Amino acid sequence: MNRNEQYTEGISFLEEVTGKLREKIEKLDQSILEGQKDIESMHDYYWENYTEMDQYGYEDYDNQQALLRQTNANNELLLRRRRFRRMLDSPFFGRVDFVYEGEDEAEVFYIGIGNFAENAGMTPLIYDWRAPVSGLFYDYDRGPASYEAPAGVMEGEITAKRQYKIRKGKLIYAFECDTKIDDEILKAQLGANGDVKLKNIVSTIQREQNAIIRNTKDKILAIQGVAGSGKTSVALHRIAYLLYHDRENLTSRDVLILSPNSVFADYIAHILPELGEEPVQEMSFDLFAYRELQDAAADCEDRWHHLERSMRFPDPRGERLFRRKQSEEMSGQIEGFLALLEDSLMDFRDVEFKGLKKSESDIIQLFYFKFQDIPLLRRMDAVMAYCVDEYETLRGRDLAEEELEIVRQKFDSMYVTKDLYEIYNMLLDDCGYERLADVPREKRVIAYEDVFPMLYLKYRLLGRGAHRRVKHLVIDEMQDYSYMQYRILAELFSCSMTILGDKYQTLDNEMQDVLTFLPRVLGRKVRRITMDKSYRNTVEIASYAAGLHGAEVPELLERHGKDVEEASFVREEDLLARITERLRVGGEDGFETAAVLAMTEEEAFDTARLLANRGLDVSYIDRDSSTFRPGLTVTTFYLAKGLEFDQVFTVWDAKKENPLLAQAKYICATRALHELYMFELS
Questions:
Q1: 556 — alpha (psi -120 to 50), left (phi > 0) or beta?
Q2: Would you list which residues are annotated within the binding site?
Q3: What is the pLDDT of residues 653-668, one digit of tens each?
Q4: Structural Rg of the chain based on CA atoms
Q5: Dihedral of CA 335/336/339/343: which sign?
Q6: Three-state DSSP class for 370?
Q7: E runs forming strands in 168-254
Q8: What is the pTM of this model?
Q9: Measured at the alpha carbon of residue 247, what is the angle toward residues 231 and 117, in degrees to the nearest 5?
């Protein structure tokens, strides 16, 4: 079949499917309207009759349950309508003709973003990209193939495989593809201008990516991938796949993504809804730590404070100290400190209150033996509860709340202190480190180097049950998490995980490979996967970036573009003029996105102001930003991590010492899709 015939056949099927989708949407509109009327009638009935409902509330309960059922049913219809409306834009992107073993005729499977059948129970017209049969499209060329269905492995032969591009309900192209996802299609997708939203890759998933997405056997996947290999996209598509295949046990509310910042969170937020799933929880680990330590201090520094200080006031000794406090060695020091803390933290004495009597020796016996497995700062609560229960049983009366509070104070007073900040200072003394400032709680600010050691100490002193609600955790930028942070994550989460990163994109002046200690910390088998093919940059940009850290050029999709432009300027005015001259955003032939990436927040702010003064429309991103806009963005290299831009201008002042310059240049270079400019002030 030639391309014209494939195109005509594609249009015919597209018209059939979109017609049936519209019919389905019309029926859903009517059902939703009728359901809404039923809900309104139930509300009216309730308010007109609730005073006459039976005294035991049975009728009231039945009415409330009926209302809840109808509301849930309507919500389900709304979700289905939203999915079908989304499918109208592009109902399918692939087709596989498959002859089952022992059969003569090929069965045709169209693959799309979601499942669509004319009526419930009927054979789908479109198969969800996550359905077992859809694996044929991603994993095989024409010839022998198989897929794993609920009934077992289905063997056969692919006789034809096609790809389509449909936008706004219009077929743009259709053709036969003899290999996996055709490289020409991939080049066309990647050669397009960048967007302010991460693109879903459902129509161009590569075979090695598909193996990761559909992996349900390994509980912990650690993906080490080069820049531009699609790590984040693959992780999000994997979440969509897991949600699709385990509906009974896993919902969107059960998934948590640890993301580096709010802009990145916004950049990826649309992917799961596009794939037919609800949004998942997202948070920054630094923000989580701040909330957890609010009882101990008024504020905590975050990673950005530390990076800014490292670049503006380079201090090799301070960096060594920072690394020591995040290390396995520090973890061991905390455990050694805790082993001796019981004696130095306690001041046992007799307790008496209205006939409740416990001797010092009895309390010591309970504290060290009966309740020895309870965390230290919660142990006296257990001792008190035991004593109170014993008293109430013997006396046949319960203590009042105000009496219990007095007793609690008596038991709590046996701690020399319960202030985590003070106990952490005791730890620093014990380890030979400088103490934190001795100031009231409202004036305490915890330096970033101390945030996670203190949080780990808190959990060891108070305990922390695993987040049972979180059943799958995604950790992005894994290379930026320290040993101490992983120890905390191991305490918090015992669920399955997808962990991903690139060791070359570390925000430290020393590269670390977390895979050397991750299995030991998590205490479970970690499946390591390497993604060594880059799809983002042109050959020229990827080769240049690899040279910045002395690594081999990754495997690349052969997409060529403009050579990287390097230049040195004496005057800042000349540098800004060159950026203005080279900038191509907006207009018919312009790019969608461009970025000027500076080293520090101060430099980024000044650059944004100066470019705005030259009449450019500038979007400035700082640590408090939460959105990524089209056009020209100015920000720091560390806030640009994970994002991509059509044009990237990297600017730095060669006269200023910056221990992170090499890392920063690499991160900036790998953000560029089409054009890269490396400009220095000398």
A1: beta
A2: 225-232
A3: 999 999 999 999 999 9
A4: 30
A5: negative
A6: helix
A7: 170-176, 220-225
A8: 0.87
A9: 95
